[in-house]
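Honest question from a wet-lab person: if I give you the sequences of every part of a complex, can you actually get the arrangement of the whole thing, not just the pieces? Trying it with mine:
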Amino acid sequence: MTAPAFPGLSYARDVAALARKDLLLELRSRDTLPAMLLFVVSTLVIFHFALPAGSSDVAAAGLLWVALVFTALLGLTRAFVAEREQRLLDGLVLAPCDRSAIWLAKALSIVAFLLLAEAVALPAFALFFDPVTAPMVAGIILADLGIAAVGTLLAAMAVASRARELLLPLLFLPLAIPIIVGGVGASVADDPGRYLGFLGLYDAVFAILSWATFEYVVTE
Amino acid sequence: MIAARGLERRYGEKRVLRGLDFDVPEGGFLVMTGPNGSGKSTLLALCAGLLAPTKGTLEVVAERHEIGFLAHEPLVYRELTALENLELYGRLYRISERRERIGMLLERFGLWDDRHERVSTFSRGMAQRLAFCRALLHEPRLLLFDEPYSALDGQGTELVDEELRSLAASKTLVVSTHDPDRLGPLATARLALA
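Yes, you can. This is the full assembly:
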């Protein structure tokens, strides 16, 4: 083993190697992203028929956020499947890299999946409901960061439990409420700046908390 | 290198290990035996730092990068190729001359021709050989092997025999097995779990 000349660079390389692995696994197995795409489009189609004609823009934006949060939950449920099925977290935890690199890499791959799902969802939303606005897109990007930060930590916690499919939504949805508040606010308010600021603050707080506590989640 | 005193491990109400005392000096070779469920894998996981003792103390004088752990599962991604798996671990362990080391191990364990195949296409025995490559990749000082002969055919068994003989000369090993006679000549100590 060679001693790292620049610890920050080594950390970035660890994150890159782990994120690359997650993206490669999805490219090969295709068991998360297609499900997310199908789910978000199906949900928007259902909402299109469920929402009475003449309903407000606010209601439509709210439904978009509901669809996005549940799509993210679907992706998070699958986030540690490969690691869980063959106890691969043990292999990663034994490696001498900083364990938070595992969290950051997984969170980055979740963000990538969410962005791809939204690249399909937003045109569908524009088609069925209202035009997509710049503050809405900004809110969604900020929300993705928060969802990935907190969701990856909770997914790692849930994966150790036998009731993981039940535990993850129970842990994640209450913590997603501020994301919904900020996201819907950024999408419909006349002054979206403060809602975007709120989402940014949420991201920063939960990213730091998740980064700092991930090690304790994956070890005894 | 390893010292256990009054070591106990419980899973909920179930006590798997109780009052265990043992030492493994640097360069020692501990062979661990016992029936299924006697705690062999748990003890190896404790030595690797993957679990914490419920009671007692366990001192392991080795850093994470100095431990090579061969678990019951191969700890490799099924949808990645053998080469991609070792590349990933090689990067995480920051191995200098990674490519050469990986190539050498794949050759030694007879997997060079299958290096671009996904692990999902491997037999259990091939996956076990790959697990050996992963565990030895970073040239660890302390080796923790859980049933190293698991799923191996005759040729694979001989290969592991040869590897263990070579490792015993310079490393510290803790090996769990159902076939202690096979490792008898190499063992410096034995631990029978009930």
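Two things worth pointing out. The beta strands of chain B are 2-11, 14-24, 29-33, 55-60, 67-70, 142-146, 172-176, 189-192. Chain B touches chain A through 32 residues (CB under 8 Å).
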